[in-house]
Amino acid sequence: xxxxxxxxxxxxxxPNAISFVRLLLVPVFAVLLADGADGWALLVLAVSGASxxxxxxxxxxxxxxxxxxxxxxxxxxxxPKGVVRH
Length: 86
What we know:
Blueprint: H1 2-11, H2 14-34, H3 38-62, H4 64-68, H5 73-85
Helix pairs in contact: 2-3, 2-5
């Protein structure tokens, strides 16, 4: 059981929580673009980018190896939606 505790403590981190919230913003971003609310969509994209930077900094300061894994994956999921719109 001690092995499970180690995995859980590494998964439930502040950087991962920030990434999870960013993932929740992807459909919000898509709906805003679909509705023509480009200004709000840009704001959501900017918040997503800032949160990507923040969780990367926090992850690297706390656990250097974890911070390098998957850096930018969530932002890449958002970018094609913005490119398709234009």
